[in-house]
């Protein structure tokens, strides 16, 4: 007997693991499940292992101190050989993990795999999704830069909206009265010990149940799940038309996992690590905080909610969403599994995916935010200066200097909070413009106290010139009547406040 | 009919004794579980109290500190100032520095605004030319007096309680202002009486409304 065989036998006699492992590996699964659609769960597991491994590597160097975290990341990025690559692997691994987990969830949902007897597997999965998102958020905090600092501020502000105990929750979350070193250490503990520990335990149970209850068979229209007969039907399917999990189905899992790991490594190598961006110094306020990719949609939603709806929405919708996910297998635990017979399920997934995509896309360029540097950085198109009077050109100066450009674009450049003003003269008459500028309204601040009458006149004259050459500017019909008819000589005319005179 | 049960056979006797023994062992096991539960509770209590430390330790994290000399803040201007978090630890690094805006509306009258947008806490930026605070996150805008101008915030900027003492401006600070703590208890000076901008009065807006007439 060769020496390795003797070593193996010696170990096996003591651990006795061969039996259970063989049983798990060779258990029969329905032939239809050996599909490329069934690879996302194992890929999530592989990514979790990658995250744990790269996370431990980063923990060798990372310093969870508010004063040093940022510098330790810079050292990882620039001084330690391949430190940047480990950071990039961990960062991209997290992105891939969230994405693959979401795909896995959508697949499980569309294939009806959450139905009897796999309800608890689904419920555990919901919590694992929440933990994965929790890992993504706490990980973003550990990258202790400006975005992390202000992201914590956003989190604290949301906490602060909870009725009665909001103030206490903020202090609990921040570990004190304000974002500080104590905040970082508690997020470190969450990211490194608490959530991963729970996630691993849940993953173990989740996989255990997949082994015990069997991989969900490929759903066929008309094959109805009934509590009384399902287990028997499934066992027949697995035994009569089944193959052993290893190697029948596992080879696809292995190939896909390798592809995913390779993709993570490629992204890490090509795109590098995320940040850290600016130092977490709150006195540097020239910053535009933004969350990581998978939270951009929340960022968008928070900017579109009307003020009075915001607090109820933030506090009520997420618990309802989670409750719906948990309740799903208990409400729809039997019946059709096939997507051909579940149109509501299919449309729900499509609706959520489209919302997620649109909100995320909006979050990448934040049209609702003033563009802070537009007034001093963006150039007025030269054509808007041609053939203009000195007063109109002075109006251009006012337009830039008073930060109008931060919210209004010209020539496609500038803020997008307010409407583009390239053809504003077609829409508003002079009087309407004056009113809009001075009084604001429609989500525009009033500029009455920030503009002198002369500045207002110049600004409105410039805006009045913004219309295509072949289309006249909007005009108040009564003005023309008055000017044609003429006024009696003794009519008092007030000239003030930027109001142009009546001729 | 008088029928006596036969005496237990030795086997039955053994079984009965065995049952009793098991009961005693079960009892002892239950005692053990109970002991562990008591000890667990005894250990859990300080742990929970420890976790809740930041909440239980101090009712209000507020302390009067100096934010600057009055001479640093000329009348009619709003300037960014920095103060040191009174509760900062040595390992807080840069996060121990907190910015705030000081506005001097008239000689001796100072308003100190928190940097945090009342919407979700992002740092607002002051634009002196247009006399507006703008938030880079979700587009909240405030007037020079801190009142809400537009965007998602539901109130004006948070203000710190402030006073002038010996030529120094003092503020009562220490915690991040959110909608639920004392920062929100002191309303903005302007939020109670919304003042329309000075020049507007001469233009005569639609009485009683600040709404735009443009659809």
The CATH superfamily title of the largest domain in chain B = Rieske [2Fe-2S] iron-sulphur domain
CATH structural fold name of the largest domain in chain A: Cytochrome Bc1 Complex, Chain C
General form of chain B:
rod-shaped
CATH class descriptor name of the largest domain in chain B: Mainly Beta
**What is the arithmetic mean of pLDDT of chain A?**
91
The number of domains of chain B: 2
Shape of chain A: elongated
Q: Biggest β-sheet of chain A, characterized?
A: 2 strands, antiparallel
Tell me the number of strands of chain A.
2
What fraction strand of chain B?
A: 25-35%
Overall mean pLDDT score of chain B? 80
| Spatial order of the strands forming the largest sheet of chain A | 1-2
* Rg of chain B (C-alpha, Å): 34 Å
Largest sheet: spatial strand order of chain B: 1-10-9-4-3-2
Can you give a write-up of this model?
The complex is a heterodimer of chains A (503) and B (215). Chain A has 2 domains: 34-365, Cytochrome Bc1 Complex, Chain C (Up-down Bundle); 374-485, Cytochrome Bc1 Complex, Chain D, domain 2 (Orthogonal Bundle). Chain A is 61% helix and 1% strand. Chain A is built from 21 helices and 2 strands. The longest helix of chain A is centred in the middle third of the chain and has 33 residues, at 181-213. The radius of gyration of chain A is 31 Å and the shape is elongated. In chain A, 40% of the residues are buried. The model of chain A is unreliable at 495-503 (pLDDT under 50). Chain B folds into 2 domains: 11-53; 63-192, Rieske Iron-sulfur Protein (3-layer Sandwich), CATH 2.102.10. In chain B, the strands form 2 sheets. Chain B has a 6-stranded antiparallel beta sheet with strand order 1-10-9-4-3-2, with no helix packed on it. A 4-stranded antiparallel beta sheet of chain B has the order 5-6-7-8, with no helix packed on it. The longest helix of chain B is centred in the first third of the chain and has 42 residues, at 10-51.
Secondary structure: elements and pairs:
The complex is a heterodimer of chains A (503) and B (215).
Chain A lengths: L2 H13 L2 H9 L1 E3 L9 H20 L9 H10 L4 H28 L8 H24 L3 H14 L6 H9 L6 H33 L16 H11 L1 E3 H4 L1 H22 L24 H9 L2 H25 L11 H23 L8 H4 L12 H12 L22 H4 L2 H10 L13 H12 L12 H9 L18
Helix pairs in contact in A: 3-5, 3-12, 4-5, 5-6, 5-12, 6-9, 6-14, 7-8, 13-15, 17-20, 19-20
Chain B lengths: L9 H42 L1 H4 L6 E7 L8 E7 L12 E10 L2 E6 L10 E3 L4 E3 L6 E3 L4 E3 L8 E7 L2 E6 L8 H4 L3 H4 L7 H4 L12
Antiparallel strand pairs in B: 1-10, 2-3, 3-4, 4-9, 5-6, 6-7, 7-8, 9-10
